[in-house]
Each structure stands twice: as structure tokens, then as C-alpha cells.
Automatic annotation (TrEMBL):
Pfam families: Tetraspanin. Gene3D superfamilies: Tetraspanin. GO terms for cellular component: plasma membrane. This is Tetraspanin-4. It is found in: Membrane. Keywords: Glycoprotein, Membrane, Transmembrane, Transmembrane helix. Signal peptide: none annotated. It is a multi-pass membrane protein. InterPro entries: Tetraspanin/Peripherin, Tetraspanin_EC2_sf. Belongs to the tetraspanin (TM4SF) family. It comes from Dromas ardeola. Its main location: membrane.
Amino acid sequence: FFIMLLIIFLLELTVVILFFVYTDKIDKYAQRDLKKGLHLYGTDGNIGLTNAWSIIQTDFRCCGVSNYTDWFEVYNTTRVPDSCCLEFSENCGLHSPGTWWKAPCYETVKIWLQENLLAVGIFGLCTAMVQV
């Protein structure tokens, strides 16, 4: 049993080290996959993804992965989801870009995670301690 726990702990440690070594590549892949995921926004069977994007854009006051133009590909027109609006109202995503959040969600969430890295690290250490 101890050997199995040790192997799991070493694998977790390896994943953390690899994460920090390949951060740039992970950033590129994450942004690419998130942009692909935007196309599932509002589609049947993807209520969780739709709600997640709406919550992130509303709470972090951001729009799209890189910027609000990411949504133009999704809708094939100049519009964004209503959760991108500075002041929420029905169909506000159809108005001009001056009424939308300009900050990119990927960078905004990444900065928030970096600012709260201590809490994330403590959570990780607590999880590792429970395993031991």
C-alpha cells in the first residue's frame, strides 16, 4: 500500500514539475482548445459550458479567449454573448464594441490564478498530505 501511495505521489510531483517546465506550450494548447470550445457555446447538450463561459465573462469582466473578436467566428457576424456586455440587457451583444468588455478572459483568469497561487499551493499540499 505504501509503495502505491509513493508512486502516486511521485507521479503528481512529476506532473507539477512538467507543468512549470512547459507552461508556454500549455498556454498555447489551452487557448487553442478554449477557442474551439467557444463554438459549443449555446448548443444543445452544452449547458454547463455555456453557463461556465457566461459566469467567467460576467465575474471577471472579460470577453472571449484572446479578446471579444473570438466570438465573431462563432456567430459569423459582429456580435458577442450578452455576458460580454458592460451593462447586461437582452441582446446587448448585438450593439457596438464600445458596450462590451475588452479584457481577454484567458489572461484575466491566468492573472487571478497567479495572484491566488498561495491558496492553490496550500490546497495541493493539503491534498498531498492527506494521501500520505
